[in-house]
Amino acid sequence: MAAEIHSRPQSSRPVLLNKIEGHSDSVNAAVLIPKEDGVITVSEDRTIRVWLKRDSGQYWPSIYHTVSSPCSCMSYHHDSRRIFIGQDNGAVVVSVTVSPPRGLILCVCVCVCVCAAHQNRVSDLIFSLESQWVISTGHDKSISWMSTQSGSMLGRHSFGSWASCLQYDNDTQHAFVGDYSGQITLLKLEEQTCSVITTLKGHAGSVSALYWDPVQRWLFSGASDHSVIMWDIGGRQGRSLLLQGHHEKVQALWYLPLTHQLLSCSADGGITVWNMETTREEAPQWLDSDSCQKCAQPFFWNIKQMWDSKTLGLRQHHCRKCGKAICGKCSSKRSTYPIMGFEFQVRVCDDCYDTIKEEDRTPLATFHEGKHNIAHMDMDPSRGLMVTCGSDRVVKVTHTFVLYINRSHCLEHHFQNSACLTFHFSLCPMKQIISALIFNMSSLTSSLNNLRQNNIK
Q1: pTM
Q2: Which residues of 104-122 are buried (b: 16+ CB within 10 A; e: fewer)?
Q3: Digits of tens for pLDDT over the chain (457 positions)?
Q4: Is the CB of residue 265 less than 8 Å from the CB of residue 358?
Q5: Domains in the chain, CATH or no CATH each
Q6: Residue 49 in contact with residue 64, Cβ under 8 Å?
Q7: Paired sense of beta strands 71-77 and 422-427, if any
Q8: What's the CA gap between 98 and 75, in Å, rounded?
Q9: Is 4 exposed, middle or buried (0-12, 13-18, 19+ CB in 10 A)?
Q10: Where's the FYVE zinc finger domain (predicted)?
């Protein structure tokens, strides 16, 4: 069922620990079970499976439960052991996993209720413990929310296109819904009604992934246009940052506050780690013009200027650095510009190219290969684990590198900026918690030196 690849990380790159196989169709979601060596998967083959790691180091299914329709998405709440599954027929299934009296192995999956939440495939769903709601989006162009206490449907809101992904803020009861038109709608959900707060527009393709960080109040979105956008919701200034570092549709996102890193996964298996601690610049809006804003040559739709100047019209392009409308002759060079999120070479005008220094081309992201189609990703930062799944029917458990890359720098940063406080650092390679009580700057230095001397790995 599963193959053990490595028992512990050997390098700073992601290390494949286990590869789980056994599904007969695409695996649409996989989540790690907190505090246990387990993975829950749902698939197009209509099965819900709980895989637990055995003494041999391999994962074997401890629960194999079949439902009536293909499973499209999942949300898992560990404390109550509840699994919420969205199905292709529009239903939301609530199941409970039951443990034996003695032992940690999950052995029984009991279906509690089935709710007809949508009239078409459920694309995403989230369980809110504070509200006791299950919020879901579907291909029937709607978002719905139901009470887990009464099992009744509380409300529904329709959009102009398929709703593809969802995030929810528990404190403010705001929902973020991405759709196939490339828009993200911000809604305020209430018991029986909802109100549209605003609509975010920036993607040129369908929005396929969302991630909400409630602390920084940042919303990250990934789309089929191969780009990621960070929306600064908390700043209330309309600020957004464009990140381009994929060759295919971005399908999974995860932000790590401790290291200020964003992980994005794409359909071709690419995994990009973005440094979000550095100061970045917003990409400019593209300007409109009937002629090149550098050489004044007309574009091909400017019939009057073409007739007056007796010249053929040119094709319009845009400089990614200044946003001006330019012709091909005035933008003959290409360059990366990571500070604006352009990790790959893009078109810039000749004037802007001359202003870009070599240090401006220093990458602010690292690129890795998941080596399989990634449709969904889940992480357990406390253990440094990541699980990915996709249409190749394979689930991969990987030891991530982001929590122990530059670990001494991260620890030093937290120690130097803290006094008279207790902090807990989760060091995943050791699988233990180091607690430090800091009273003054001298103890800060000694604590940091002790950590370095112990050569924590």
Answers
A1: 0.82
A2: eebeebeeeebbebbeebb
A3: 555 454 444 446 788 999 999 999 999 999 999 988 999 999 999 999 999 999 888 999 888 888 999 999 999 998 888 899 999 999 998 877 655 544 544 455 566 678 888 999 999 999 999 999 999 999 999 999 999 888 889 999 999 999 999 999 999 999 999 999 999 999 999 988 999 999 999 999 999 999 999 999 999 999 999 999 999 998 878 889 999 999 999 999 999 999 999 999 999 999 999 999 999 999 999 999 999 999 999 999 989 888 988 888 899 999 999 999 999 999 999 999 999 999 999 999 999 999 999 999 999 999 999 999 999 999 999 899 999 999 999 999 998 865 444 433 433 444 344 333 333 333 333 333 333 323 333 444 454 455 455 444 4
A4: no
A5: 2-280+364-401 (2.130.10.10), 303-361 (3.30.40.10), 408-453 (no CATH)
A6: yes
A7: unpaired
A8: 17
A9: middle
A10: 281-358
| 278's tokens | 């550095």
